[in-house]
Amino acid sequence: MSIQSFVKPGEFEPEALATMSEAFEAALKELDDTGQPKLVLEIIAERIIAAARMGERDPVRLRAVALRKPD
Length: 71
Known about the structure:
Largest sheet: none
Structural class: mainly alpha
């Protein structure tokens, strides 16, 4: 599954989408995405998209945001 399926067309420039995709794939790999419920994938994507909307473009920080534990 790609993060692009969670993003509105035209919302981000191609470079941002590439960074977001890198972070999404890294987060899924860290979680071992096999068998993860779709809801988990959606939450990870939503967190990355929210951080990207705020201007974050570092894939390591985007991955960290996606995987953070609730307080």
